[in-house]
Design brief:
- By secondary structure, the chain is an alpha/beta fold.
- The protein contains ten helices and eleven strands.
- α1 runs parallel beside α10, α2 packs across α10 and α6 runs parallel beside α7.
- The radius of gyration is 19 Å and the shape is globular.
- The protein starts with a strand and ends in a 10-residue tail after the last helix.
- It binds nicotinamide-adenine-dinucleotide.
- Nicotinamide-adenine-dinucleotide (NAD) binds next to α10.
- Nicotinamide-adenine-dinucleotide binds next to α10.
Length: 296
């Protein structure tokens, strides 16, 4: 059996179209565009690429993009001051501070300074807590994108066995919380998990978010399982060129799985689409306007 390939790029494009419709409707009703502010500290080339593509996607979706760049040696107080201004700015619905920050800054302190009701990345402890107890808040973009792909594939996740590999605050833990909310039976595996291949073999749903190229082998996958590969790893390919691979040994796993996301073109494109979704949801909430339930 060869797995269905889950086209995250196409799914994300459709999601972005729906978000653009809601963003335009918001503008008509609120008399202003929904706005996302992105703050970049330093000149990390990968971060610059991410920030540029987030800004471009924001404008393409009919929202306002506000970009702020601070030098790598900026004082932490300067960043906190910028965040305070964005918290107070009524034109800003979402605030994103691009991580990682320079070493002299305390990431926890910086994230804690963001108004939780503008924290469209869902990294603030208040939003982590809301997710844990089942209240409305903001859910981190990558795991929420994974959930959307899973529901599109499976409909209901109720009673299914799900294994999440990796327990980071931005992917693994919120992914486990979302799957629990959907009534899956969830195992959160990590670097100290014993007999990981056996644990994964039980799963109807596998989400790999480890950061180790090709770690999850085809022989670990239960036939027919749905495999989402969050990993983005740069490895040296033919002719010394770098290429992107996931955490799953794709060629092996696709012979066993029922459906699988490729890298690139699977989970990756969902992250920015969900960031836009969270921003437009924030805009509707902040203006006290109703967004149709499950609209996006
Ligand atoms: P992280 O380094 O913060 O966490 C990795 C987790 O993997 C840890 O919880 C650790 O316990 C676990 N782990 C490490 N080695 C393991 C092993 N041998 N067996 C089992 N578990 C092990 O990483 P992260 O931020 O969660 O990111 C994970 C991967 O996802 C990375 O490749 C990252 O680039 C990618 N990522 C992609 C997106 C996207 O698609 N947009 C977003 C975020 C992260």
């Amino acid at each position: 059996m060869t797995a269905r390939v889950i086209d995250g790029k196409a799914f994300a494009a459709r999601l972005r179209d729906r978000i653009a419709d809601h963003a335009h409707a918001f503008e008509e009703r609120a008399g202003r565009k929904a706005g996302l502010a992105v703050v970049l500290v330093g000149e990390d080339p990968a971060s610059e690429v991410y920030v540029r593509s987030k800004a471009r996607a924001t404008v393409e979706a009919g929202m306002a993009s506000f970009e702020f760049k601070l030098p790598a040696d900026a004082a932490e107080a300067e960043l906190l001051d910028r965040i305070a201004k964005l918290n107070a700015d009524p034109a800003v619905d979402g605030i994103l501070v691009q991580l990682p920050l320079p070493r002299h800054m305390n990431e926890d302190k910086v994230i804690a300074a963001i108004d939780p009701n503008k924290d469209v990345d869902g990294f603030h402890v208040v939003n982590a807590g809301r997710l844990a107890v089942g209240q409305h808040g903001f859910v981190p973009c990558t795991p929420l994108g994974c959930l959307m792909l899973l529901k599109d594939q499976l409909g209901s996740l109720e009673g299914l066995d799900a294994v999440v590999i990796g327990r980071s605050n931005i992917v693994g833990k919120p992914m486990a919380a979302l799957l629990t909310r959907e009534n899956a039976t969830v195992t959160l595996a990590h670097s100290r998990t014993k007999d990981l291949p056996d644990v994964v073999r039980r799963a109807d749903i596998v989400v790999a978010a480890v950061g180790r190229p090709g770690m999850v082998r085809g022989s670990w996958i239960k036939p027919g399982a749905i495999v989402l590969d969050v990993g983005i790893n740069r490895v040296e390919g033919e002719g010394g060129k770098t290429r992107l691979v996931g955490d799953v040994a794709y060629d092996e796993a696709k012979e066993v799985a029922g459906a699988i996301t490729p890298v690139p073109g699977g989970v990756g494109p969902m992250t920015i689409a969900v960031l836009l979704r969270n921003t437009v949801v924030s805009a509707y909430r902040r203006e006290g306007l109703d967004l149709p339930k499950d609209a996006i």
